[in-house]
Amino acid sequence: MHQSGYGINGRSTNSNYNEGVYRSEGGVVPEQANAVFSLELINECIHTLPLLRSVATQLEQRSHESVDFYPKVAELAGEDPFLAAKILSAAHSVPCGPLKPVYSIEKALERIGVFNTLELIKELTQIDTETITPGYRIGWRHSVETAVFSRFLANNISTFNVSADLAYMAGLLHDIGRFILLKMALDAGISVETGSWSSLDELPEIELQQYGFTHTEVGYIAAQCWNLPRTLTNVLRFHQHYDLWEFKTVSLPFKQLMTVVQFADFLSTLLIKNPEWPAWSTTQLKGFITEHCIHVAWPEIDFPVELLAEQLPALSEQCQRLVINAEKTPEVGDL
């Protein structure tokens, strides 16, 4: 059973680490901030966060008159957290958006419409694009893995009722605050350890010490700025709170969603920490998954560990294909 961040009684030792930043009325009070990053700087970065260069190139070069233009945009958004976030942001900024949340990129594009989709692509591709640093590549792969694993769990935990579209999007966006912090750190000339993507245990404390904010706080600020649906906003804010099952005020659907995302998060981290895992037997995989991906604070849940261990190589290959697809530059014949 995974026990990181937990005391001997199973309660989180850091579950309230951000209480000094977010008050009950929603105001932001950066009491821990070291003046490394200010709220103004965070908000500026949120509004100017660039697309990956390869993704922007594919969007720019593909003709909007091609029959597969919108499926391709949806495909790229399913592989890139920032593009997905901005499309969902646009879909929930229309008058009916907040009342009718959508978590499918295809449905979000339908809501936005042709003209607004083209305007959004134009806006996003005019921002200076970002090359892939080692830290960004690891984080990108981690986000895609968490999304794919979350969807698998949503479809295969028989006692849960979690939308596969919502699970995928929650997994894809859960760490977007880390991308914002990474961009800010690189712009400020601050060295970033790529290993932080595999260190969930110490991450909040390290981030507070280095930046004065955690990635969950920054992700929460970004989600509010982008007008994302409340459920996704809360995922970004609380995905490192592992004791939500103890609170009666938290709805059952949200507890189930968070458990799916957290399990997937643990699983991706396990793979990052153990690159030799493809050589493990199915029995070894089952043991490692049970030990490292099921948190001690959770109730008894019938996770599909055996099925997951059997299908993990194929799921990992799917993640790799998604990343490679988003990185490639389209050939002339593909446009």
In short:
The chain has helices spanning 39-48, 53-61, 69-77, 81-91, 105-112, 114-126, 134-156, 164-173, 176-187, 203-211, 215-225, 230-238, 252-273, 282-293, 305-327. By secondary structure, it is mainly α.
* Total beta-strand segments: 0
Total helical segments:
15
Strand content: under 5%
CATH class of the largest domain: Mainly Alpha
CATH architecture descriptor text of the largest domain: Orthogonal Bundle
N- to C-terminal distance: 49 Å
CATH superfamily of the largest domain: Hypothetical protein af1432
On the 0 to 100 scale, the average pLDDT is: 82
| Major β-sheet annotation | none
Topology order in helix (H) and strand (E) letters: HHHHHHHHHHHHHHH
Molecular shape: globular
Range of helix content? 55-70%
SS-derived structural category? mainly alpha
Our Rg estimate from Cα atoms comes to 19 Å
Low-confidence runs (pLDDT<50, min 5 residues)?
3-35
CATH-assigned fold name of the largest domain: Hypothetical protein af1432
How many independent structural domains? Answer: 2
